[in-house]
Amino acid sequence: MSFIKTPNKGMRDILPKDMELREYVLKVMKETYLLFGFQMIQTPVVEHIENLTSNQGGENEKLIFKVMKRGEKLKEGNILELDSLVDCGLRYDLTVPLTRFYANSMNELSMPFRSFQIGNVYRAERSQKGRYREFMQCDLDILGEKTSLAEIDLMLAVITFLKKLDFKGFTIKVNDRRILTKMIECAGLPLSSLSSILIALDKLDKIGILGVEEELNMLSLEKDNVKKYLSFFEKNTDSIEEFCQSFSMDADVVSNLCEIIQVVKNNIDVNIIFDPTLVRGMGYYTGTIFEIVVDDFSSSIGGGGRYDKMIEKYTNQSVSACGFSIGFERLLLLLEERGFKVPDKKEKLAIVLSKDANLQEVFLKAQKLRQKNKQVKLVYRSKNYRFQKESLENENYEILEW
Predict the structure, then answer these.
(1) Are the C-beta atoms of 379 and 386 separated by less than 8 Å?
(2) Quick one: angle between helices 194-201 and 177-186, nearest 10?
(3) φ, ψ (nearest 5 deg) of residue 19
(4) What's the CA gap between 162 and 356, in Å, rounded?
(5) Please, what is the end-to-end C-alpha distance for the chain in angstroms?
(6) What DSSP character marks residue 141?
(7) pLDDT bucket at 124, cuts 50 / 70 / 90
(8) Which SS3 state, helix, strand or coil, does residue 88 take?
(9) Residue 280 — φ and ψ, nearest 5°?
(10) Could you tell me the domains of the chain?
């Protein structure tokens, strides 16, 4: 029997040197988020298929790895109707599991509930640089906080974490889904086409304003209304108030967004801007949305927003919610490309043994060194000692021959 020697497409093995970077970044993240008063939780990788297909995950619901029923339940399904053979799926993000978690556990949680969750998620999409079918997400959420305190605290926590890694050259873009909706409404476009319109707008940086216009015209919308809608984006201003004047946006929405940007700017050195073309793909966003973009990278490395209606579907109670997710794999890719090195705090010692070494003595020696918080590796001397020595030195080991 022959074995396939590579992981499944979009999956990968992770080498020790890469795990070292991953674990260090996760350590910095956890320490930072704990300082901001967030509590760590964990949810299962497998969720009921009904939870994953509740029209809250946008395009990601088309990318679910579905899990077939087992045993007698599988026999009950109709092979001609594939969905009848499925009862579970692998989670495609951490937000849907969080809302289900909260619905199950809300009586045991303090409010507002400040959580962070780190875990692998799965999407059956085309893999490419920085994009995998199995990847780690790192989510930060505040449930039960109606005010802008939630958005501000989330942004400050994430920015603080990135700065601890000396990560530079990033910008926080901010918008509000209510502004996007109001523009469509004031242009006379049907709100029934909101999702399709925003999908087209989201491509603006790739296909330009004429490309967006062409895509909108393909939706059989009134051309004059399409032109009016696109004219809103011609205004060259950094001011949220000025941008929103032409379609009479609710003053509370405008002032809330201004407050978020101003407070974040006053508390930490970061480039944070209003971007009226920012969409964010998830269908569950209801208010503020934000994204981290990097000068030398085509995709965002994180983002989030407010999703005030999502938990209500599980609990029949109105619960405010806001979250921020880091694209962990993309962040690691950028750190590696920039030559980031994990600070080596522990003294590392490799004891290279001759074939007649006294194991009793050497293990006693190693144990004493480990009690002093030194990292000790025991290896027998290989025939190609020169290569062995170079390998150990490349791993920053001091060598002791025994």
Answers:
(1) no
(2) 110
(3) -65, -35
(4) 50
(5) 44
(6) E
(7) confident
(8) strand
(9) 65, 125
(10) 16-337 (3.30.930.10), 348-401 (no CATH)
Single-letter amino acid, residue 334: L
Tell me the C-alpha distance between 226 and 214, whole Å: 10
Place of tokens 């603006």: 204
Outline where 165-293 has alpha helix (H).
177-186, 194-201, 204-217, 223-231, 240-244, 251-267
Quick: pLDDT tens for 51-110.
Answer: 888 766 556 777 888 888 876 666 665 665 677 788 899 999 898 899 999 989 988 999
Q: What is the dihedral of CA 16, 332, 141, 174, to 10 degrees?
A: 180
User: What's the CA gap between 202 and 199, in Å, rounded?
Assistant: 5
> Taking CA 315 as the corner, what is the angle to CA 313 and CA 317, rounded to the nearest 5 degrees?
95
Peptide bond into 343 cis (omega under 30): no
Supply the pTM of this predicted model. 0.86
Containing 139, the helix (H) or strand (E) segment is: strand 134-143
Give the mean pLDDT of the chain.
88
Q: Are strands 66-68 and 321-327 parallel, antiparallel or unpaired?
A: unpaired
The number of CA neighbours under 13 Å toward the Cβ of 146 is 2
Q: Are 278 and 181 in contact (CB under 8 A)?
A: no
